Amino acid sequence: MRFSKLIRFAIKAAPVVYPLAKELLKKRKEQKSSKSVNNKKRDQLV
Q: Which region ranges are annotated with the description Disordered (predicted)?
């Protein structure tokens, strides 16, 4: 019973949550790529 309520809530919330999650993922990816660039620069300095 509780599980079906959760699913229903998730379906209702999906249109709101999905774009937010997408933005978060995009930001996280950008942070990761910038970190890897910084690491490469540091490796070159050493």
A: 27-46
Here the tokens at position 6 are 């959760």
Cα separation, 2 vs 37, whole angstroms: 46
Q: In 3D, which of 9, 28, 29 has the Cα closest to residue 17?
A: 9
Q: What is the C-alpha to C-alpha distance for residues 7 and 30, in angstroms, rounded to an integer?
A: 31
Domain interval for residue 45: 1-46
pLDDT tens track for 1-46: 688 998 898 888 888 888 888 898 898 888 877 777 777 777 776 6
